[in-house]
Design a protein that fits this description.
The complex is a heterotrimer.
Chain A lengths: L1 H15 L1 H23 L3 H5 L27 H37 L1 H16 L2 H12 L3 H28 L2 H8 L4 H37 L11 H9 L7 H28 L1 H10 L5
Chain B lengths: L4 E14 L2 E14 L3 E5 L6 H8 L7 E10 L2 E2 L5 H10 E4 L3 H4 L6 H13 L4 H14 L5 H5 L8 H14 L4 E5 L7 H18 L2 E6 L2 H7 L2 E6 L2 E7 H6 L4 H9 L38 H5 L5 E4 L2 E3 L10
Parallel strand pairs in B: 3-8, 3-9, 6-7, 7-8
Antiparallel strand pairs in B: 1-2, 1-4, 4-5, 9-10, 10-12, 11-12
Helix pairs in contact in B: 4-5, 5-7, 7-8
Chain C lengths: L3 E16 L4 E17 L3 E5 L6 H8 L7 E6 L2 E2 L5 H10 E4 L3 H4 L6 H12 L4 H14 L16 H13 L5 E5 L7 H18 L2 E6 L2 H7 L2 E6 L2 E7 H6 L4 H9 L38 H5 L4 E3 L5 E3 L5 H7 L2
Parallel strand pairs in C: 3-8, 3-9, 6-7, 7-8
Antiparallel strand pairs in C: 1-2, 1-4, 4-5, 9-10, 10-12, 11-12
Classes of the chains: A mainly alpha, B alpha/beta, C alpha/beta.
Chain lengths: ~300, ~325, ~325
């Protein structure tokens, strides 16, 4: 239908530009690997960190262990591979939870306004006033290490951004004449919100959220790196880097490969975000079209 | 008024590249504006009138492509200018728009915006002189209390005042040609009359030529010396405003005139033009108005009528007026 | 006989101006300041004024989108702000609206069928087939065919989109439709199409209209009665003929003079000087005196009384009181 044409065109624009295409491949690859890694890993015990093998420690990359082995003799490649599952889980968990808190607050504050709205937005502003990473560190440290705690800590430092975004959008949408028209038709508020306000107010937020996943992965890795994230032996990328950090002088591969994984994934997400913005902006579109030699 | 053309537009053809195709906004448009003349470009949405205005002031959006044509302003082709010549020409062709609030940066006071313009264009550096100059122009556009306006933010002023401020800023760079794109459409009728009145006064005072773009034939008839009627990206008729009203030739012009409700008649039914504008991505092969014209024949469908001078100083593009020149 | 469908009594709507974190009220925008009129069954009443006159606020109060500060809006001799339950639903169905810009009043994510069927689904129980048939018949009434059912607003022209908005407004079989500048966002050649359609629908469905506009030129064609409003107060009211043939208030005359007329040369009209004053501090006395070319002393001090020129032609102006009319006759 006509509605989806726009999205199709945006997608085709992304695919036609090499660097955007590459970023799309990276992101899709990350998601596919993340979903299938538990089955794919060559050394599952190493990956989950259930065993260790002191004889095989600090082996440089070889055919058997393409990324070498770590200080406990575990296959780094397996751990990185499984780590992608954890990163995906963290990204989806953080963004999902942040949206789960942020959307209702933004919609209620925006649609009903008044005292309740003011109160909700003041609370949101209080959270926004903290530097988000610092807030996440404090929360993670208070809650203790663990995957779930890490997700909660990050989501709490994250939701205010979505609440703000949704609030602003809701405010715009609720003053649109089509919302007035729905009120005049006698629709109850709950229907107006679900049928008109949410569908029209949410698109930018959802897009933003999907593109924020790269940053969520980066922040989670950061927290794990400084020791307030997941518990060892979870093969989370940030934790892997931190584990390899001590032996960087004589076994560079232990920290290097997980670092590379973080870099590629985060850059992939960010490039895709840029490509998306570029294709969705009609003013930038022509430059892309021209560069692509589209028949004009 | 001399008959020296200040602006000549020749065979202007402009496309817009959009996601799902190419909009053929303006096709083969040619006209002239003489010195001191007010020419009105009249058309409805999709007529290409604004695109013509943007092309002359060289403010076309990024996705517009000028396929063909020349825009000659005082003997120089605006479309082939060296970069260093551009700024000098820009001073002489200025454009004002429909929404005055969107034209001024809301973060700066009127005075700050105005001073920047004057500093840049008149090469003045003395703050006091700049201010004096700005106040002088604010007075020229009949704004009450220019001092207060100079120190106001755009949001503190009404739509009518903002439009005056913009006209004042525009005049301060001493333009020769002013392109006004629906400058009164967003205003109330009483303010609309004020702004039109002001434009005519300023035209005389500053020796301006004006290209006035509007959808409203009544306004065009009141202030224009000459009217050019556009439809679907092409010119369909051109004549002096008295002639056009007295003796409209093109069926579209006739229809447009009949659509204006006259206050002294009680209608049982208002006249309208049935149908709507064609898809601009696929302009018809023949006459642009053929789908809505009651007098269309097979010829109109197949063959595009050329704009000919059917009567003296009265051009029309319609097969009804072929051959039998009076 | 004519019975009042809707009666508005001394309606006032003040919007508080709030500043600071706690929203301290520092003043009021007096958008509507004591307006009374009624709309009879089968009648078209036009509310004419410029921006800031309060005409749209009146409409929003009638549509229950704003709560009046004081005054009454009576429908079937009951105050609409007090309606609850079935009576409220009944009022909602009876009073519908068409707005200025159809592209803003139609949800861009819904197709034409969804847009028109939404109010119907909410208030009537119809099967999918019945609904489809009903919506198609509405489309036909507004001059569109079935092929429009699955189109989205951005695929429509302005005129078509406004027809869809009209179809939605008549879908609940209302008695009164509030038309808020229904043609001012449309092209001239399409404006007439829409006005003709509205006039036809009125006859066919025996509707009443409250037409809100700043454009006097479209008013004469369609309206029975005209109310001229300025800064939240009524200046003049009368039948369409009376207002057009014998406008009494200086403001009304100036409004007429401001209508662009292709057959009049520039400079032949009275141009109103100055800007409308702020509705926060409306001028004392007659609201129009700051811009009125004929203002006399008393206009600046005292509110003008109601002068009846005929049974329904009333003007609020000192110049037409017996004492002053001789001074200003020209």
């Amino acid at each position: 239908m006509e509605k989806f044409k726009q999205q199709k065109i945006i997608l085709s624009l992304i695919i036609r530009k090499p660097i955007s295409f590459l970023s799309l491949i990276i992101v899709l690859g990350f998601i596919v690997v993340g979903l299938t890694a538990p089955i794919l890993v060559p050394y599952p015990e190493d990956a989950w960190g259930l065993t260790y093998n002191v004889e095989k420690r600090f082996q440089p990359p070889s055919i058997e262990h393409p990324f070498g082995t770590d200080a406990l003799g575990r296959d780094v490649f397996s751990r990185i591979l499984l780590g992608s599952s954890f990163s995906l889980m963290i990204a989806v968990g953080v963004i999902g939870l942040a949206l789960f808190i942020g959307i209702p607050i933004g919609v209620i504050a925006g649609y009903y306004g008044g005292r309740v709205g003011t109160l909700l937005m003041r609370i949101t502003d209080m959270f926004l006033a903290f530097p988000p990473l610092l807030l996440a560190i404090v929360l993670a440290a208070t809650l203790g290490r663990g995957l779930l705690n890490l997700i909660i800590a990050l989501a709490i430092s994250w939701w205010p951004w979505y609440a703000r975004l949704v609030y602003v959008q809701t405010n715009t949408v609720k003053n649109m004449p089509y919302v007035d028209a729905a009120k005049i038709a006698g629709l109850p508020n709950i229907k107006i919100i679900s049928k008109h306000v949410i569908p029209n107010a949410l698109t930018p937020t959802i897009v933003q959220a999907a593109l924020d996943m790269g940053s969520a992965i980066l922040e989670a890795a950061g927290l794990s790196f400084i020791g307030v994230g997941v518990k060892p032996p979870t093969p989370e990328w940030g934790l892997l880097v931190s584990e390899g950090w001590q032996s960087i002088n004589y076994a560079w591969w232990i920290a290097f490969f997980p670092g590379l994984a973080i870099l590629i994934t985060v850059v992939g997400f960010n490039l895709l975000a840029d490509a998306f913005r570029e294709s969705a902006d009609p003013r930038l579109r022509r430059t892309i079209l021209m560069r692509l030699g589209v028949k004009q | 008024m001399t008959d020296q053309p200040i602006l000549q537009v020749e065979n202007l053809t402009i496309d817009y590249v959009v996601l799902d195709g190419i909009i053929k906004a303006v096709r083969n448009v040619s006209f002239t504006i003489n010195e001191g003349e007010v020419v009105c470009l009249v058309g409805e949405s999709g007529s290409g009138k604004t695109t013509v205005g943007l092309a002359i002031s060289r403010a076309l959006p990024e996705n517009a492509i000028i396929r063909e044509g020349r825009i000659i302003f005082k003997g120089r082709d605006l479309l082939n200018l060296e970069i260093r010549d551009k700024s000098t020409i820009e001073d002489k062709v200025m454009m004002i728009f429909q929404d005055p609030a969107a034209t001024l940066n809301p973060l700066f006071k009127v005075g700050e915006i105005f001073s920047d313009v004057i500093k840049h264009h008149l090469k003045l550096s003395d703050q006091l002189k700049i201010r004096e100059k700005a106040l002088e122009f604010l007075k020229a556009v009949e704004l009450p209390d220019p001092e207060r306006i100079f120190n106001s933010y755009p949001h503190e002023l009404s739509g009518g005042m903002l439009q005056r401020v913009i006209i004042a800023i525009t005049l301060s760079v001493n333009p020769k040609l002013l392109i006004a794109d629906e400058p009164t459409t967003m205003l109330d009728v009483t303010l609309q009359a004020q702004i039109l009145d002001l434009l005519i006064n300023l035209k005389k005072k500053f020796g301006l030529s004006i290209l006035f773009i509007t959808h409203n034939l009544s306004i065009a008839a009141e202030i224009g010396d000459r009217i050019i009627v556009m439809y679907g990206g092409e010119i369909v008729e051109e004549a002096s405003s008295e002639e056009l009203l007295k003796n409209p030739l093109h069926p579209y012009t006739k229809g447009l005139l009949e659509c204006i409700p006259k206050t002294h008649i009680k209608y049982s039914k208002l006249k309208s033009i049935p149908g709507m504008i064609f898809d601009l991505r696929n302009p018809p092969l023949g006459c642009v108005f053929v789908d809505r014209c009651t007098e269309a024949t097979d010829l109109c469908r197949k063959d595009k009528p050329r704009l000919i001078e059917f009567l003296k100083n009265h051009k029309v593009a319609c097969h009804l007026y072929r051959g039998s020149t009076k | 006989m004519n019975t009042a469908l809707l009666r508005i009594e001394d309606l006032k709507k003040y919007f508080p101006i709030r500043v600071g974190l706690f929203g301290k009220v520092v003043g009021y925008i007096k958008a509507v300041d004591g307006v009374s009129f009624n709309v009879d069954a089968g009648e078209v009443v036009s509310l004419v004024g410029e921006s800031g006159s309060g005409k749209t606020t009146i409409a929003r109060c009638l549509l229950l989108l704003e709560k009046p500060t004081s005054g009454k809006i009576l429908y079937d001799s009951e105050d609409i702000t007090q309606l609850r339950g079935e009576k409220l639903r009944n009022y909602r169905r009876s009073v519908q609206a068409v707005f200025q810009n159809p592209f803003l009043s139609l949800d861009p994510r819904m197709n034409v069928f969804q847009i028109i069927s939404e109010p119907v689904k909410n208030s009537m129980k119809l099967s999918r087939e019945e609904l489809l048939e009903y919506v198609s018949s509405l489309l036909e009434l507004v001059g569109l065919d079935k092929s429009f059912l699955d189109k989205y607003p951005h695929e429509l022209s302005g005129g078509q989109a406004q027809r869809v908005a009209i179809a939605r407004a008549i879908s609940l079989k209302p008695k009164l439709i509030i038309l808020d500048e229904p043609t001012s966002a449309l092209d001239v050649s399409v404006q007439a199409q829409i006005l003709n359609l509205l006039a036809d629908l009125k006859k066919e469905l025996s509707l009443s209209y409250l037409l809100i506009t700043h454009d006097l030129s479209i008013v004469k064609y369609i309206s029975d009665r005209i109310i001229i409003i300025y800064l939240g107060k009524i200046m003049e009211t009368g039948s369409s003929e009376e207002i057009f043939e014998n406008p009494l208030h200086p403001y009304t005359r100036i409004l007429f003079s401001s209508i662009p007329d292709p057959y009049r040369k520039f400079g032949e009209r009275v141009i109103l000087r100055g800007e409308p004053p702020s509705p926060v501090n409306p001028p004392p006395g007659c609201r129009f005196h700051t811009r009125c070319p004929y203002a006399i002393d008393i206009c600046r001090k005292q509110e003008p009384p109601e002068i009846k020129s005929s049974l329904i032609h009333k003007v609020y102006c000192w110049l037409h009181t017996e004492k002053h009319s001789s001074e200003t006759k020209t």
